From TrEMBL:
The keyword Cytoplasm applies. One of its GO terms (cellular component) is cytosol. InterPro entries: FdhE-like_sf (IPR024064), FdhE_C (IPR056796), FdhE_central (IPR056797), FdhE_N (IPR056774), Formate_DH_accessory (IPR006452). Transmembrane segments: none annotated. It holds the Pfam family FdhE_C. One of its GO terms (biological process) is protein maturation. This is Protein FdhE homolog. It is found in: Cytoplasm. It comes from Propionivibrio dicarboxylicus. GO terms for molecular function: ferric iron binding.
Amino acid sequence: MTPTQTIEIHPSTEVPPVIQLPQPGRIFADRHARFAALSQQHSLSDWLAYLGRLTQAQHDIALTLDTLAPPPPDAVERARQHGMPPLAALSYPRPANWTDIARRLAEKMAKGAPEAMHAPLAALGAMTVTELDAIADALLDGRIDPDALPETTIVAAALQTIWTALAARLDVKTLAIPDPSELCPCCGSLPVASILKTSAQINNLRYLHCSLCNTEWNVPRATCTACNTDRDVNYRQIDGDDGSVRAECCDHCKSYLKIMAQEKNPGVDPVADDLATLALDLLVDEAGYSRSGPNLLLLGGAG
């Protein structure tokens, strides 16, 4: 008779990270792959495929930004002492060549772009630095020109790529969760969504995902990420879906933000899966809730 063997399972002794900095070498490549998967047999397949190409272009450019200088340590320390993010989107100086990056993205996207995008992409390529700076300033301040949505999406993608590269070069030990906690500890931007992560080190902890620099930071579950209440939160999803993407809705402030579960679908991406579930936005919007964080790639619309 074979003796009984006892298998001992030891939980990870590592403390889960409070803040996870982005990895520019893979974040956009992974997102491109997710867009490619989501675009199969989707009612918005052409649009999702276009955004997949845009994230591939972001990846190509991100690989060239490894020498981008982070803020000096004394500036990071001053920001920490004052409870401010070191890469504050509205005040941190953009690299001198950021407009070249926007033009490179437009040039990459012009090849094989839908006919409706030809004129906007050409127009962006001809814009002056002043004009591009004005679009970027308005975007980061939440003011969107409805007559320049396609151009704004390219500018947003350029800023995403740059801020992701900058955030990756920070020392996570110098960062702290800001107050209010719904703002990114690196750049102060709002989150695009939250994600329940599963790994050997992280077991279903909830992280907010920055809409600009792709940093993630831990916040308690079942808490409104806009007003911090834990009493009036409910969850909604499209009937028949697998539950990997739900809307976390707050009856106190009437806001919502999507929450995604890796346990349900390991491949979920906060940006791509958000854009592939616009029907959920319509559902909760009709129920009287307003979205609390932006998706910068949604600015060009879905049609």
